[in-house]
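Quick illustration, no need to memorize.
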Amino acid sequence: MKNPVPQAASLLLEKLLLLVHVRPLPAGSSGEPPAAAPGYYDTSCFKRGDLLEVPRTLFIHFGIYLGENRVAHLMPDILPAFTGDRRQIQQVVTNKRLILGVITKTASIRVDTVEDFAYGGSILVNHMDRLFEDQVLGSEEAARRAEKLVGATAYSLLWNNCEHFVTYCRYGAPVSFQTDKTSQLLEDWILEL
């Protein structure tokens, strides 16, 4: 008989990691994020190929800056599974689309404005470079990798999320330190039971 603990732990971890992307909406909200003021972020300090990080409540969301106020980032999204219509897919991802994308393990690597990507959060630039000192690819190479991957893709909170996407683009290896750390914490907690 298989041990159910690893499966239960994996399921619990996926549900916990879902919280990184979900922001509760105020009562009566239409499901759309609040409109950011144009130019809210000073993009003059960003360079094409920069790795952008936006700290959230529990985790961090990642993207690659493409220049001209555009960021490529991986987001769970159910819509690409049903349509190839870029206009529909490019609309801001609602919480319902996002949650259904996580459940069905579908996503898209999309290009949004810095404002839509950051969703009102602060932005760190190339903060992970210190962890990959000798592995940083050229900025143009990172941006080209990101642009090449734009479109529908599989999604996994543990194996193919936004952090895996940006570390592949900027450093050549898909890694997620936040899921590794969370997995280790969960494993330690289970072992203490």
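The first strand starts at residue 51 and ends at 55.
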